[in-house]
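Bench notes, afternoon.
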Amino acid sequence: MLILVALCVKVSAGEKAFSERHLQKIVLSIEVSGNQDISEKYVFENVDLLTKINSYTDLVKVETDLKSIYALGYFDMVELQVEELYRGIKLIFVLKENPKIKKIDIQNNIIFSDKKILEKIKTQKGALLNFKKLKEDIKIIDSLYEKAHYDLSHVDAVNFDQVNHVLTIKILETKIEEIIITGNIWTNEDVIRREMRLRRKDVYNSNILRVDRNKIISLGYFSDVYAPKLVRGTSIDKIKVIIRVKEQKVNLLNFGTGSSASEEYFFFINLGFKNPFRTGEKIDIKTQYSRQNAKDKQTYSFQYQHPWMFRSPTVFTSRLWKTIGDEEYNNEDIQIVRHGLLGRFMYPFTDNLQLSLTGKTERIQTYDDLGPDMSKFDYYNNSLCLQLDYKKFEYDNFKYVVRGSIFNASMEQGGKSLGFIDMGGVKFERYKVNISHYLQLLSLYDILAMRLIAGAYKLDNSQIDTLESDLYSVGGSNTLRGIVENTSLVHKGTRMIVFNIEYRHAFNEFFQSVIFTDIADAFDAGKGLLDNCKFRISKGLGIRFRLSGLTIRFDYAWLESDGVLHFSLGQMF
């Protein structure tokens, strides 16, 4: 693998040869000769000679000193000569320096450029060849590949041309000769391959393969995706990767319950079809009952999703729905039916960053026991929404989020004319930013979690009355704790600012305690940015129970004097 250099250290022959007659002689002086670039001072400062001035000579010590000087790496040969003096001897270490490097040639490197490698290693053009540094440089290059998860790539050989003084470093980057997928009976192989970053002829990277395996698992089509198997290829620099999957039943009828930022709780029954056409699509038929601000709502929906549009990882989602429930208008609850259709394109720039464009049309009508009643409300909400999402965080051993950030920002416009397209319906603009950050404290299980939500809504309802459900609402278990939902203490408005901070301590995977503070308000727009804003502050204690993957949340909060107990499902953020 590496160039081999003979240990060239010896005692000179001839008149100045070190012989038996010089043993047990007093050393009166020690010198270095033959050196040009490496000073005598450098040699003596970096080699702890066993032979000392005014000590008696010893053959073992002398030979050890020769080897120690040679081990500095700068010398092609080290000799020992002796000069006899009146009352003793002088030892002279004769050095022959290695040649200077005129060029460094790095070969077969694709992952890291010549410049990147040369910046990392100690050996440089114009310097003396040093075999000690060269060994260290080999470790540095190997470590560079290892840290980047190119585990099968390393320095293959190092050679030095004694005539042209060229140092050649050959890298072996192991490439993927073939990716073999087995076990997929129903699912098309392309559905699996398109989730993978690794391709044939790529340099093997264990971390990319790990991420690829996780993506295949997340498809939900397989009960198991076994650890990839590596097999030697047709040459030393090639391997074959074998990925074996086990398919599972993908048509499921399930039901469940949960909680979200917009709903206190919900129950649902869902009939899902995963991969019905063998190319990765998903179909969901869902019935849901939910409750928000003491108002009940029923939803019936049909959703279709294609994960790979336009031969790219663009996800297309289409959803058709009907909801029936009470909504507020002029402090009065009236029953409303909504029929809607949505189409969304989402493109992931990276594993953490994605951009989506959503088009939506929805008809809103008053509803009574006999069916739709168009005498009060009958209008359309047609809109386009652009949203940017970023998410990156880590979990502790109990699978709680311990560090990271979540960010999403959206801009929605309704009823506007976009070039040759007139969306029609109610004219409005909505802007919203939601930022969450998680910071690990001194202990692995002590987390500081923070969230900021800001929103603005502008409505042009000069032509038609609209419902108040599109206004922002602050007060309750998901915004400002310490307020009972659907009471006079809940603030509504066209603008909203919410800031939540929680200190979380995990005792085990089932139980977590929380100390929190909420600062928030919803208000109507004024001349200034925060005109009409009256921040209210609540504080309190909470506990979280996790049962079968479901988080049960209890929070007790004080806004002014009286406390309020909140019960919800799922973390607040």
